[in-house]
UniProtKB/TrEMBL annotation:
Highest taxon above the source species: Bacteria
GO molecular function, one term: lysozyme activity
InterPro entries: GH, Glyco_hydro_25
Gene3D superfamilies from the UniProt entry: Glycosidases (3.20.20.80)
Full protein name: Lysozyme
Alphabetical list of PANTHER family matching this protein: LYSOZYME (PTHR34135:SF2)
Upper classification of the organism: Bacteria, Pseudomonadati, Pseudomonadota, Alphaproteobacteria, Sphingomonadales
GO biological-process terms attached to the record: carbohydrate catabolic process; cell wall macromolecule catabolic process; peptidoglycan catabolic process
Family, similarity comment: Belongs to the glycosyl hydrolase 25 family.
Species per Swiss-Prot/TrEMBL record: Sphingopyxis flava
């Protein structure tokens, strides 16, 4: 079965059953595709739920912004978040439209909160500090402000390292005078590789790397964003999941 014979000039010649071969190939291809899709689905399911072990990192929390929609903070706390860092301002004008609401609701749910500013490499430090100070009130019980440092397609220019460090120092001095405590700096791995911010700015660091502890930065990290694929019932889309090193974060 699978081959037939025809006579041509007195000789029997096999003729392949191409239809059967194609069907066999299609079945194998579909089975392989199903296995790949299953593996991808399991990986996404695992990534959406994975957090570092609580016995190693007792203090854990989330990163939230407007993309997470109308957050139900009671659900976030019930999922195991002890604190929340919430995006507040971006550059010299932009404000997260859900910041004030998220801050108030998270505190009402009994969570400690801290604000995040996205630093813009193309904007003056004093203008960015003014934007932050206008939007973020000083609170004694607030966690230290965090400065998110990443490349941005809206800013094609790349300042020199000396200029970036000088401007960043100015920005930090102004928002820290307002907040009454030192800030965290949170450089992404690519920007840190190019500018080595953590060796030029003496601040506590918050580093980012999914699933594996970060190995960049001049100093040991105090906080690690370990997974930005986490999905929680209380928020739309994905949230960042963070852990604090055993020494904790200083409020000073």
């Amino acid at each position: 079965m699978g081959a037939t014979f025809t006579r041509r000039k007195g000789r029997a010649k096999p003729r392949r059953n191409w239809r059967g071969a194609i069907l066999h190939w299609l079945r194998r291809t579909l089975a392989l595709a199903a296995l790949i899709l299953l593996a991808i689905g399991l990986a996404l399911w695992w990534a959406a739920r994975w957090t570092p072990p609580r016995e190693r990192y007792p203090l854990q929390g989330v990163t939230i912004d407007a993309d997470n929609g109308d957050v139900h903070w009671g659900s976030i706390k019930a999922a195991g978040a002890d604190f929340a860092y919430i995006f507040a301002t971006d550059g010299d004008r932009r404000v997260d439209p859900m910041y004030a609401r998220n801050m108030a609701a998270a505190r009402e749910a009994g969570m400690r909160t801290g604000p995040i500013h996205r630093y813009d490499l193309c904007r003056l430090a004093t203008d960015q500090a003014a934007n932050f100070i206008r939007q973020v009130p000083r609170r004694i019980d607030a966690l230290p402000a965090a400065v998110w440092l990443d490349y941005d397609n809206r800013c094609p220019d790349r300042p020199t390292r000396a200029l970036l460090l000088s401007e960043l120092a100015t920005f930090l001095a102004q928002i820290e005078a307002h907040m009454g405590k030192r800030s965290l700096i949170a450089p992404g791995p690519k920007l840190e590789a190019d500018y080595k911010v953590t060796s030029g700015i003496a601040r506590t660091t918050w580093l980012r790397r999914n699933f594996f502890t970060p190995d960049y930065g001049a100093h040991p990290w105090a906080m690690w964003q370990a997974n930005d694929y986490v999905r929680l019932s209380g928020a739309r889309g994905t949230v960042g999941w963070n852990v604090v090193r055993a020494e904790g974060l200083s409020d000073e």
